[in-house]
Design goal:
With 378 residues, the chain is mainly alpha-helical. The protein has twelve helices and six strands. It is elongated.
Length: 378
C-alpha cells in the first residue's frame, strides 16, 4: 500500500484518501463546501480573518474542488515564501475558476475536472476581454494547483497537460533571441565600462536575476570555475552560469581588478561585484540607464521593430527574455521559476536542482551545451 507524507500539509495518504490534520488558515479558501442553489462554496480571504470549515475533512479525488484549493492555499501559506499580492492573486484566480466550474459541472470534484473544461475556462476569459498577460497568470495558478494535486496523489495531472492560452492571448515578450544576441554585441570589450555593462546584461539574461539581486552581488558570489552564481537575500538560490556568461564574467573580473588597482583604495568597495568608474557600488538608476541606452541603440538599428512595437526596456526586458527563451526551448516552467527565485507553487517530488541544471544546459542559449554563436567572445 502506498504511503505518502507531506509535512507542509501534515497529511498522510493510505490508498486514495488524504486526511489533513490541519486545514484552516485565515488565508485559506473554504474547507467546508457549502452549496446554495448549486453555487460555489464561500472562500475565506485575508480580509475575512475567519476560519471556514471545522474538524477533520477527508480529502480525496471525490472531494469538492474548493476543498482541494483550500489545502493548496494552506500549503502555500505554510511553505512557499511569497508576497501578500502574490497570495491574493492565487486566491482570486482560483476563486474565479471555482465559480466557472459550477456553471459547467454539477458539484465539481477534483476528479471530475477535465482538460476540456479548463480549456473552456481560458476561452471564456479571452472572449470576455481579459488581458493576455492576466490569462497567462491565471493559467499559471491553475497549473500550480494541479501540480499540487499530482504531488499529493489526488490527480494524475492530465487536466493541465498541453493546456495553453488561446493563440491570440499568448503573452508577447520583449526581446527575441536574435535581438538579445545583437544587444550583447554592443558593449565594448576593450574598456572597463564596456565589460561591466556586458556583464550586467549577461547576468540578467543568462541567470534571470532581478536588478536589485544583480547589484547586491559580491565578488565571492561568483564561481567561474564551478560555473555557478550564489544569490543571497530573501530568495536564496544557486543558479548555473552558461558557457558564454562564464567567459564574460571572467573577462569582467579581470577588467574590474585592473580598474580598482588604479583608484584610491579608501574609496573602493572592494567586495561589491558591480562598481562605478569611481569604485563605488553601482546604483540601480545608473544600471537601469545603462541597459536602456543599449536597448535604444538596438531599436534604432533594428528595422523590424516599429515605434508602435517597441520592446520592453531595461532589466525587466532581459529577465523576461530569460524566462521566455527557456520555455520556448522546452524547459519546465517550474524549473524556470526556481532559477528566477519566484514564489513558486509546489512541484512534483521528482524536481530537484540537478534536474533544473540539466534542463538549463539543454535549453538556454547561453548555456554550456548550447551551440556556439558568440558574437560575444570574438
Amino acid at each position: 500500500m502506498a504511503h505518502y507524507v507531506d509535512r507542509s500539509l501534515r497529511i498522510t495518504r493510505a490508498g486514495d484518501t488524504l486526511q489533513p490534520t490541519r486545514a484552516d488558515s485565515p488565508e485559506c479558501l473554504s474547507a467546508s463546501v457549502r452549496r446554495a442553489g448549486g453555487g460555489a462554496a464561500p472562500i475565506a480571504s485575508e480580509s475575512t480573518g475567519g476560519r471556514v470549515g471545522e474538524g477533520r475533512a477527508k480529502l480525496s479525488s471525490l472531494s469538492a474542488v474548493e476543498s482541494g484549493v483550500d489545502a493548496f492555499v494552506h500549503h502555500l501559506n505554510q511553505h512557499e515564501p511569497m508576497s501578500r499580492r502574490t497570495r491574493q492573486a492565487y486566491i482570486s484566480d482560483l476563486r474565479q475558476l471555482c465559480r466557472f466550474l459550477h456553471t459547467r459541472i454539477a458539484g465539481p470534484c477534483i476528479g471530475t475536472v477535465e482538460h476540456n473544461v479548463l480549456a473552456d475556462f481560458l476561452d471564456h476569459l479571452h472572449t470576455t476581454g481579459i488581458r493576455p498577460r492576466t490569462i497567462a497568470r491565471k493559467l499559471t495558478s491553475i497549473r500550480a494547483l494541479f501540480a499540487f494535486f499530482h504531488a499529493t496523489g489526488l490527480s494524475d495531472g492530465a487536466p493541465v497537460r498541453g493546456l495553453r492560452p488561446p493563440r491570440s492571448a499568448q503573452p508577447v515578450m520583449g526581446l527575441s533571441a536574435g535581438q538579445v544576441r545583437a544587444l550583447l554585441r554592443l558593449p565594448s570589450r576593450t574598456s572597463f565600462s564596456g565589460n561591466r555593462d556586458l556583464a550586467l546584461m549577461e547576468l540578467l539574461y543568462g541567470c534571470g536575476l532581478r536588478l536589485e539581486e544583480l547589484l547586491a552581488l559580491r565578488v565571492a558570489d561568483v564561481d567561474v570555475t564551478g560555473a555557478e552564481l550564489k544569490i543571497e537575500g530573501g530568495r536564496r538560490r544557486v543558479v548555473p552560469l552558461g558557457r558564454q556568461t562564464t567567459k564574460v564574467m571572467t573577462r569582467y573580473l579581470a577588467s574590474r581588478a585592473q580598474k580598482l588597482s588604479q583608484l584610491n583604495i579608501q574609496r573602493v568597495e572592494a567586495g561589491v561585484l558591480f562598481v562605478s568608474n569611481r569604485g563605488g557600488r553601482l546604483r540601480p538608476r545608473t544600471a537601469q540607464n545603462v541597459i536602456e541606452r543599449y536597448v535604444r541603440r538596438l531599436e534604432g538599428s533594428d528595422p523590424v521593430t516599429s515605434p508602435g512595437e517597441r520592446s520592453r526596456r531595461g532589466a525587466t526586458a532581459l529577465r523576461s527574455a530569460f524566462a521566455q527563451h527557456l520555455l520556448d526551448a522546452g524547459a519546465d516552467a517550474a524549473g524556470v521559476g526556481i532559477l528566477m527565485g519566484k514564489s513558486r507553487a509546489p512541484t512534483p517530488a521528482s524536481m530537484n536542482l540537478e534536474d533544473v541544471q540539466r534542463r538549463y544546459d539543454q535549453a538556454h542559449p547561453r548555456s554550456r551545451l548550447a551551440d556556439a554563436e558568440d558574437g560575444v567572445d570574438d
